[in-house]
Design goal:
The protein is 49% helix and 15% strand. By secondary structure, the chain is of the alpha/beta class. Helix 1 links the parallel strand 2 and strand 3.
Length: 253
């Protein structure tokens, strides 16, 4: 019997490029411990002088990130625990925002909910044609409150609203490119990986201080997100206690 691969977050440094990879056997869904590890790893890479540029990727060849772990969400039994859980994505997004290194997102497949937030929090994102996106939160009784600021910042409020309201639709990778989430979309994962590697190597040869200063410009006027995203996590944390959400999640479990 084949043993199931365990979840992980790892950092590999190659030629001044820090490759941060996360993985969970359930379609790269994100439980609290993986979110915490990811946040800490991004912080670590940001401080590592051996790294000039960061690539954020997930393991496996299918789903980039399925969002929050339903198995963990269904166990939430208080508003405080709910807030703590949804704060996980808030902490990762804020870590990406405040990281002094440019972050390239590599999206190889479908991404849902909080995974869309991770793609939006990357400074530059490349994807394969399989990387369709969905914000399914309304369909389970909550909403994409935590990731809204970062997604709206990247694709605009109109597109964010469209995705939020049409909660059961996967929007194509080309649609995401048109809206600005992806800088480019590739026919194959191999072509995407070549482009990610080429861009990362090019950026890593530029003046690190210029990259750092430019990143601070990219994220200007987001300093209040430390508080804002946690406040949004509180909203989701309360909604997840509803009978609607609990019964819906049990069907997906």
């Amino acid at each position: 019997m084949q043993k199931e691969i365990e979840s992980y977050v790892k950092l590999i440094i190659e030629n001044t490029i820090g490759y941060i990879e996360f993985f969970h056997p359930n379609r790269n869904s994100m439980p609290s411990d993986i979110l915490l590890q990811l946040k800490k790893t991004i912080d670590e890479a940001g401080k590592n002088e051996a790294i000039n540029v960061i690539v954020l990727k997930s393991g496996g060849d299918r789903t980039f990130c399925a969002g929050a772990s339903f198995n963990e969400v269904i166990e939430v039994d208080s508003a405080e625990k709910g807030k703590a859980f949804f704060s996980g994505f808030a902490h990762v997004i804020n870590a990406m925002r405040k990281c002094p290194k440019l972050i390239i997102g590599r999206v190889q497949g479908k991404t849902v909910g909080g995974g869309v937030g991770l793609a939006a929090a990357a400074d530059y994102c490349l994807a394969s044609k399989f990387a369709s996106i969905r914000l399914s939160e309304f369909s389970i009784g909550i909403g994409p409150f935590v990731i809204e600021p970062v997604v709206s910042r990247k694709i605009g409020l109109a597109a964010m609203s469209q995705m939020t309201i049409d909660a059961e639709t996967f929007f194509t990778a080309e649609w995401a490119k048109e809206k600005g989430l992806y800088a480019d979309v590739f026919e194959t994962v191999e072509a995407m990986d070549d482009a990610v590697k080429s861009l990362a190597e090019k950026l890593s040869g530029y003046n690190p201080e210029a990259l750092k200063q430019m990143k601070s410009v990219f994220w200007q006027d987001t300093e209040h997100w430390d508080t804002l995203l946690i406040d949004r996590a509180k909203i989701s944390g309360a909604l997840v206690l509803s009978e609607f959400t609990k019964s819906t999640l049990k069907r997906f479990r």
